[in-house]
Structures are given as C-alpha cells and as structure tokens.
C-alpha cells in the first residue's frame, strides 16, 4: 500500500476484487486511516459536481455566439480555424469531419455539445479576453484526440469555471471537494507515461463513481487492465485517501475562501448563523469588530466547523462510514 506511485506500474500482482460484496472504499478507509479528523466516506461519495443542463445550442446559435462574443478575442488564426472546424464536425455541417469525432455515438455527440455550450456561455458571460483565448486554445488542442480526452478537458474546464450564483458556502465547498477528488484520482492513475492514461482515468472514474463520487460517463474505448499495482483497486483507493486527508483538503479550501471576498462573506455568514458565542467565533474567524462583522479571515477550525455541520467530516470519537 505504501509503495510510491512511480513504482506501481512496474509491479505485477493478481487482483481479485470481483466478488467483493461490501463498499471497499469504506472498509479500506476504516481499516487504514485513524486521523483525528476523518471523512464520512458515504457522504463524500454523494458530492458530485452538477453536470451542465441537459441542453445545447443549435448550430446557428453556437456559431452566432462564437462569431459575436468569442472569436474577436482570439489572436491566433490557427485556434480560430481549429474551433470552427470542431464545431462544424460536432454538428455535422459543411461536410467537415474530424477522425475521432466522426466515430462518436449519438450520446457522445450530445454530451460534448452540452459541455461545449456550457463552457462557451460561461466565458461569454465572464467577458475576459485572456480567459477566452486560453480556454479556446485548450479546447483546440484536444479536438484531434479521442472522445475521452475531449470529455476530460471540457469537464475540467467546466468544473473550474462554474460559480453557481445564489448558493451558500456549502455549495462551493462541495464543488471544491469534487475538484480535489478528481485531481487526486487523475494524479494517481496518470502518474506514468502510459499512452492510455486518458482511458485509464475514464475507466477508474467510472469504477469509483459510486464509492468515491464521480460523474459517470460513457466511454467508447475499452480500457484493458493490466496485472500491475497501478491497476489494483485497493491500491488506488489507499493512495487516494493518503492524499485526500481532511487536514490537507481544509488547507486548500481555506486558501480559496480567504482569497475570495464572496466566499469569505458566505463563510462568515454560515458560521454566525449557527454559532453566537463570541468565544467560539474567535476560534473560527479572525475579526477586528464582531458587531460590525469586520471579518479578516476564516481559520482552519472554521472550515472544519462547516464540514462538521455538513456531516462530511467529524472528529475521531465519532463512528461513521
């Protein structure tokens, strides 16, 4: 279990989790991780980033959005050409085809169009020329690759862009946790130079969708598991929880909250609505004048307080799985 990731693809094993009846993630976490603050694994598995609405723009609508709001911000002609060819291929117009796109199933065509629509709408609304060019460049670099690669980049961009106005801080914390989970899984299963890394990630995201909580997605290509440690479910889960410790996640979330005035305001509001004693509030927040709600920052204990309120993390004295 403690073997470093860079050795894992080299070590042969025989895996036999086919007949494993219970929740392997819960059992493994319970057995191997005894930290002061621990995850409620079943609740963590419920944290899944919301997919875009099941709708996409028509060809005329998405080309109109592209020509009017996005294309003027692109300085590189090859990026413009690549995106326009990609849109034509996805919508099957102008006799344009792209090798991998032409092999999509109907569901895959729809999924990519849904994500592309959502991303285009996001960057249009943000109206940041540099962001528009950077994101369109990233998309253009994946258009000649397989469905899995295209899906991964669009989903990654979508998760990064999503803001969700009108939600309390728990919504954003869940989104942050989902992204952290996804990044950790990606780091584990793509830690080598295997040409099949993108299919490896797609396979394990689907395999762990219920136990860890990932968006499950159709993959056209079958990933052939190897009898190596990096393809062992128990090893992957152990490495996942090794990186996904409550304290590490709290530190990452805390940094995002304290750098974002909106998050800071929502976090302090959540805490104040649930705790009125100033002595306790001083453990959760740093402030100059509490009566004026002059909050300077949130503390680690403040984030943990919210996670405990959400039921996703508790101190070791509690039993939950």
Question: Descriptors for this entry?
Answer:
mainly alpha, flat, two-stranded antiparallel ribbon, 321 residues, two-stranded antiparallel sheet
Widest beta sheet: strand line-up: 1-4
Low-confidence stretches: 6-12
Distance linking N and C termini:
21 Å
| Series of secondary-structure elements, N-terminal to C-terminal | HEHHHHHHHHHHHHHEEHE
The residue fraction in helices comes out at 55-70%
Query: What Rg is obtained from the alpha carbons, in whole angstroms?
Result: 22 Å
Structural features, described:
- The chain folds into two domains: 182 residues, no CATH class; 104 residues, no CATH class.
- The chain contains 15 helices and four strands.
- The protein has a two-stranded antiparallel ribbon.
- It is flat and about 70 Å long.
- The two termini are 21 Å apart.
Could you give a quick summary of the protein structure above?
This protein is mainly alpha-helical and 321 residues long. It has helices at 24-32, 41-44, 59-70, 77-91, 106-126, 129-140, 147-161, 169-189, 197-207, 209-213, 233-243, 246-259, 261-274, 278-284, 300-310; strands spanning 37-39, 285-289, 294-298, 313-315. It is 57% helix and 5% strand.
């Amino acid at each position: 279990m403690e073997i470093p990731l860079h050795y894992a693809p080299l070590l042969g094993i025989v895996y036999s989790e086919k007949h494993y009846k219970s929740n392997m993630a819960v059992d493994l976490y319970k057995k191997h991780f005894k930290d002061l603050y621990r995850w409620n694994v079943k609740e963590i598995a419920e944290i899944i980033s919301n997919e875009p609405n099941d709708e996409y723009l028509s060809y005329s609508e998405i080309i109109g959005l592209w020509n009017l709001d996005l294309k003027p911000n692109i300085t590189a002609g090859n990026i413009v050409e690549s995106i326009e060819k990609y849109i034509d291929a996805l919508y099957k117009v102008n006799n344009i085809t792209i090798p991998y796109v032409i092999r999509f199933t109907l569901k895959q065509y729809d999924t990519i169009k849904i994500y592309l629509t959502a991303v285009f709408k996001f960057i249009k609304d943000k109206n940041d020329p540099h962001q528009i060019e950077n994101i369109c460049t990233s998309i253009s670099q994946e258009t000649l690759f397989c469905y899995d690669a295209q899906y991964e980049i669009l989903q990654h961009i979508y998760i990064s862009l999503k803001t969700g106005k009108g939600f309390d801080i728990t919504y954003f914390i869940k989104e942050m946790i989902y992204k952290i989970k996804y990044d950790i899984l990606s780091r584990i299963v793509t830690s080598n130079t295997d040409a099949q890394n993108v299919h490896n990630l797609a396979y394990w995201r689907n395999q762990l969708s219920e136990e860890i909580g990932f968006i499950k997605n159709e993959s056209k290509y079958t990933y052939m598991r190897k009898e190596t440690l990096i393809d062992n479910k128990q090893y992957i889960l152990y490495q996942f929880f090794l990186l996904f410790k409550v304290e590490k996640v709290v530190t990452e979330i805390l940094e995002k909250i304290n750098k974002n005035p909106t998050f800071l305001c929502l976090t302090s509001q959540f805490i104040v609505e649930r705790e009125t004693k100033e002595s306790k509030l001083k453990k959760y927040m740093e402030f100059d004048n509490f009566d004026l709600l002059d909050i300077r920052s949130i503390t680690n204990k403040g984030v943990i307080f919210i996670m405990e309120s959400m039921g996703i993390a508790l101190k070791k004295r509690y039993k939950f799985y």
